[in-house]
Amino acid sequence: MSWDARQRAMLAEMGFRLPAAAPVAVEAVELAQTEPEPERIAVAVAAPPPAIVRVAAPAAAAGFSGLDLPALREAVSGCRACGLCEQRRNAVFGQGALEQVQWLVVTDPPDEADDAGGEAMGGNPLSDSGRLLDRMLLAAGQPRTGDAASAFVTPIVKCRPPRGRAPLPPELDACEAALAAQVELLRPRLVLALGLQAARRLTGLAEPLGRLRGRVHRWRDLPVVVSFHPAYLLRSPADKAGAWDDLCLARRTMQAS
């Protein structure tokens, strides 16, 4: 597999050094310059997809099933199923491809900018983490904008928890019903969970992020691959290498399904 000039530029912006020769195979991508931390799980790009860790599927969506996308968006914006609705400015439904969705990208809860604008991860063009996410998805061949859009991005809970705290189990339960309804309508082939809170909820495992990465989980009979949240990668750029490993794992997993 080779990368065109735009993808090579996107990889370079993510912090990867590519050999000068073209085309560049995925196996030839040079990753980060620093030694990996002990908890990181290295993923060999040429290896076959690892064994799947199965997680029981949650209960069916309640109150959101049977709606089309516009009606579901409206239902989410007016949802009062948990206490997060009391302090939100806007519910964050998500954005991206609405047809032929390949990847459903589920992120940690909305931040203050997402809450203010009602858009997920970079609906605000000034969002550094959103721009990085878009570069990551474009380099992986799964953009969320444009005529070739194939990814849809949405948070694990649709309203921002106060003071940035982690969402509580009843809040996660309430929002998982909306997420399940999105899955029914969008029919993605793979879920990419970005961040610890999204990863733990979708895998059902209370483990560190480093231990959840590097393997394929299941949620609602969909493969789930776990990676770092872009906001974390901006603070810890050395981990962009691990993020690229995760994107390659997601690509291989979808191709094998």
Describe the structure in your own words.
With 257 residues, the chain is an alpha/beta fold. It has 9 helices and 7 strands; from the N terminus they run αβαββααβαβααββαα. The protein has a single domain (44-256), classed as Uracil-DNA glycosylase-like domain (Uracil-DNA Glycosylase, subunit E), CATH 3.40.470.10. A 7-stranded mixed sheet has the order 1-6-7-5-3-4-2, sandwiched between helices. β6 (216-219) and β7 (222-227) form a beta hairpin. α1 (5-14) packs across α4. The protein is globular. It starts with a helix and ends with a helix.
Shape: globular
Please trace the helix and strand order, writing H or E for each element: HEHEEHHEHEHHEEHH
Instruction: Write out the strand line-up for the largest beta sheet, numbering strands in chain order.
Output: 1-6-7-5-3-4-2
* Quaternary assembly: single chain
Largest sheet: 7 strands, mixed
- Tell me the count of domains: 1
Number of strands: 7
Average pLDDT, rounded to a whole number, is: 82
Strand content: 5-15%
| Helical proportion, percent range | 25-40%
CATH topology: Uracil-DNA Glycosylase, subunit E
Note the gap between the termini.
18 Å
pLDDT below 50 for ≥5 consecutive residues: which ranges? 21-61
CATH class: Alpha Beta
What is the overall number of helices? 9
